[in-house]
Specification:
Helices cover 29% and strands 24% of the residues. The chain is an alpha/beta fold. α6 links the parallel β9 and β10. α1 runs parallel beside α8 and α3 packs parallel to α6.
Amino acid sequence: MAETIHCDVAVIGSGTAGLAAERAARKNGVSTLLIDPDFNGTTCALVGCMPSKLLIAAAREAACINNAALFGIEVGSVRIDGPAVLSRVRRERDRFAALTRKSIDRLPKKVAIRARARFAGPDTLVLSDGRKVQARTIVIATGSAPVLPAPFAALSDAALTSDTVFELEDLPPRLAVIGLGAIGLELAQAFAHLGVEIAVFDKGERMARLRCPRVHANLRDVLEQDLALHLGVDVPPKKTERGVRLRWSGSSAGSAEFDQVLVAVGRKPQLDGLDLEKAQLELDDQGIPVHDRETMRCGESAIFLAGDAAADIPLLHEASHDGAIAGRNAAAYPAPIPIKRSTALSITFTEPTLATIGAAEEDGAVTGTAEFDDQGRARVDGVNKGALTLYAAAPAGRLIGADIFAPAGEHLAHLLAWAIQDGKTATELLAMPFYHPTIEEGLKQALRMICAATPIDLPNDQDAGTPAGA
């Protein structure tokens, strides 16, 4: 008879969400198991956040060198060593992944089980090594995988995804990028700055789900300086001897040949093979277990969901929060511990940075905008591109969201996310100190527009003027 292992909380998957769930459950005094077939490291370390930012860092250096003439600095000829660029990406990526694996090695004895798991019932798992696990509660944190539609899968090695692109030995001369979410935008611009001829394609007309047309127009203008941009098009691929030919129809019909294609049309939860039907869970029309975001509990069951497997907001900080919420609630089951979610914050590391924060609309919402083409510090640094829009609730001008495409955008985004979560109004932010000359001064114009659209006055003890270059 197969061995049966008993525990309070079993976690399936050792990515960011799974590690957080196991840690939170164990911290709350229950016995745990962490089940994974590989324990290779997190999506972020292996194929997501870290390798992409390593490539972007190299691209940023190349862009700075190419922009040096603006400051009267002549650097001569520049050669980008593609194999060296990609070798550093993999070397540093492997270091980050190794650090994650070390944290797994430090788990208490017998917590980590190297095996695949599938449901045999609502509280029972069958492992690929023949053993069973019976748990009081179970957390599903199996992550996600890139979507690769059949026409592109048929291209074999000519089709890349975010899971395979960092294994390139050299930079391809010509690369097509399909999909303009965060992954497609980041990698397309980075490769372009590294000298790759880039064309990007998307069926939609709006990139990165941006809500503000003004910010979207700024993003488009900047991207088109470095690459060919095609929105609202279909691109059926055809394998050729030299690579891949794409023919597209829509607003800008045409065709072109590329060495390879990077397919970045999204990621899907890895739920296949779990035998979810035996868990007796209600599924939505995408096959995702229906769950409560405040507890991550699936219906009235003793099963919880966390991270990319939940298909809510596929970002590392959200996965980490999901795991902590799921693990704590799994340990406390059946007593729920609802957690208020943080303000939504999404950052795409383009140049300049793109960010979406909070909500865009609410009853009585007002907006304030700012441009950075002539903003003082941005112009000094030669990064004077972009725009932002702030959203606020009338009548008090309480900030509820923002769309940003601006220099130092990741820092502005954090500042605004904290202000929104704290319930700050435009007036209250204007009462804060603004040093000169800084990018943060660019917020003043948008904040003043919100104040002008509400019955709340500007702070009486603050100068309503604008310093030179602010």
